[in-house]
Amino acid sequence: MERGWRYRGTSVLGVVCLTAFAVGIVNNTTIQTLAMQIPILNRLPADPPVGLEYTMEILVTTAVMTGVFIPLYKPRPRRALDIVFLVHKRVLVGSFALAAIGYFDYSYRLPRLTVVLVTPLLLIVLPLWFVGIRQQPASDQARALLVGDDPELFTQILPELDLPIVGYLAPTQALLARSDSRLPATDGGLNVDLERLGGLSRIEDVLVEQDIDTVVLAFNQADRAEFFGVLDACYEHGVSVKVHREHADSVLVPGDAVGPFVDVEIEPWDLQDHLIKRGFDLVFATVGLLCLLPVCLGIAIAIKLDDGGSILYQQERTALFGDRFDVYKFRSMIEDAEAQTGATISDEDAGEVDPRVTRVGRVLRQTHLDEIPQLWSVLKGDMSAVGPRPERPELESAIQAGVGDWQKRWFVKPGLTGPAQVHGVTGADPETKIRYDLEYVRDQSFPYDLQLVIMQILKVFRDAIAGFRSNRT
């Protein structure tokens, strides 16, 4: 089977060609005449299009079906029945979309008989296509790869693996204490040598060259660049990832997984959820920035009049898969507030008074107005409206030492608000915060996002009123 971008191209081409073929078949005069013999269908007018109308019908149907199948273009190990179910779901979504187009826009409508006839045909041919090009699930796979930074850990987990391993990838420094680059392994009770196929930077090349189906992680130190780089490569090439249960602290795994090795949930949410979420982010950020523009001008003037310093300040935060990005806020502290202390959590996060906060800054923090510039990060795609609150990399190293599950929050895009924020939990209580964050990763949905946004807006109003009252007294 094809992998990576070749799989994407093959799957897209199949949807386009089979959809166009199906439209051509159902518009055949003989087919439509036979369909009219069915009692229910004989009420629909038989009107096979010709010329430009026929071309537009093919283009519209193909475009809609190609779009609704986006979640299935990324290669994933799936069982045949799962593929059939997913394809049927997409075909039905596409058929409803075609019917809706015909209802709202007559210029691009498809005849009702065409929609009725093309749907069952696509329910047959498209599942066959995707089953034919599918990647076999893990139980049927024949080629696996060990990837990590600890060869000694490899030798510990190898006896429990029931997958044939073609070799391993490890950084050079991990092998300095060894006399050679081969590891002792077992295969059916016989001693064999497991060969090193290169460093971690060769992950993508080896996945393709060796036709790898499964990667088994064996990291002693989950460095954000190397560790999440491996996960990203597996995600792009449709390779499943497993990890020993005793070393699963840094990854998301199914809650009901059994056995010594568990699957890593590289993509915890369906791509359709991502698309809906991204669409909401764009609308939310655009409307927010436009509506709050006069407020932003007023804040900028107030900051300048207060101490004459800079209006915005910039901070580096942790993003998806451990990457980093810059966020901007309205400055609420004195200039160079961390020059003497270094990166620290504000005393206000623990409910105390931070002397570094300016007069205007205290109002901004009480009303959460200092967060407005982060809508630009949402618009750019670095953040989402809802998700785990991004933390500063300088502070996360200390947090990780005490909270083993902290890296699991890196599997989703950070957000402006989330369950932890609406419940008033900050980085001063990382153990409670991570429980809320992982709860969101498991339960995320568009209605849940809307609920959290509404709760956060209400919280902002309550905090603003409370701050106004306290300032008056």
From TrEMBL:
Q: Which GO terms of the molecular function aspect are on file?
A: phosphotransferase activity, for other substituted phosphate groups
Transmembrane stretches in the record are 12-34, 54-73, 80-104, 110-133, 282-303
Provide this UniProt record's keywords sorted from A to Z: Membrane, Transferase, Transmembrane, Transmembrane helix
The highest taxon in the source lineage is Archaea
Q: Which residues form a coiled coil?
A: none
Q: Where is the Bacterial sugar transferase domain?
A: 277-461
Q: What is this protein called?
A: Sugar transferase
Q: Which organism is it from?
A: Haloplanus rubicundus
From the broadest rank down, the organism's phylogenetic lineage runs: Archaea, Methanobacteriati, Methanobacteriota, Stenosarchaea group, Halobacteria
